[in-house]
User: What shape does this take?
Amino acid sequence: MFRFLLGKLLYLVPTFLGITIIAFSFVRVLPGDPVLLMAGERGITPERHAELSAQLGFDKPVWAQYFDFLGRLMQGDFGNSIVTKKPVLAEFLTLFPATVELGLVAILIATLVGVPVGVLAAIKRGSWFDQISMTGALVGFSMPIFWWGLLLIIFFSGILQWTPVSGRISLLYFFPQVTGFMLIDSLLSGQKGAFLSAAQHLILPAVVLATIPLAVIARQTRSAMLEVMGEDYVRTAKAKGMPTRRVVGVHALRNAMIPVITTIGLQIGVLMAGAILTETIFSWPGIGKWMIDSISRRDYPVVQSGLLLIAALVMVVNLLVDLTYGLINPRIRHK
Assistant: This one.
């Protein structure tokens, strides 16, 4: 197991370096001059522009700027925001709990709905339930997040008025954030109605963000179950007269969950990409909205370090999925 873990960690090193190059290059191809954007409508003299460029290191060759960026990363320095002057890592950690809360609820919805739907679709292969559920999964996978989010806002917030349009909690409630997770902090506050308000604000963006992962998990579960249901040990269990619930739950589902778990882990990257659009639509104060605002302001340190932090998070999650896969199936460790 140690060799398996060491091999995965060594594999992450070139991946991380490649991500630093992509993140650094991405902000350099964005149109606009961050120094001019800092000056705003007041304008700036050529002398002052040159001075600020030198302070920010933009007067150096691109390759020198990259190695400066890489050197600071090795020391744990992700730089300071050009706009707010605050450390990028501090801003990321402040906003990160909001995105994690949204992502966890979304993946929970996707898993709790997607796995049972996939199992039932496999058991009832060819039935009306199978056809409707898989067609719905295909539609959900193909549906643009920004369009789906606006539809739900119009229907549930505009017409039915069941859910709020934006934010994490009503302005009627105020309490110190202990954990950064609004559902937990609202419970800890003891204020009547705070938890319900936080849940109402969370449910709609979480459903929007969960749509694509739910569709993928449902289809993967159905595919894995169909493959496992044709194995000899499942047919033997059926021939012995075991109840269908035991055959499906103990023999089939447990083995079918190996690729499903991998799929769930891979959906973390999809969630992070979807969070950018979802947080923008619902004005959710997380790292997705933070990144969009930083791109529009050409805040180079925030964009490149934010991309790097998000990519590192996805890499860590995928590593944990690989380790879980290795624990479930020991044969994987020797490949």
Remarks:
- The chain has 13 helices and no strands.
- The radius of gyration is 24 Å.
- The longest helix spans residues 244-281.
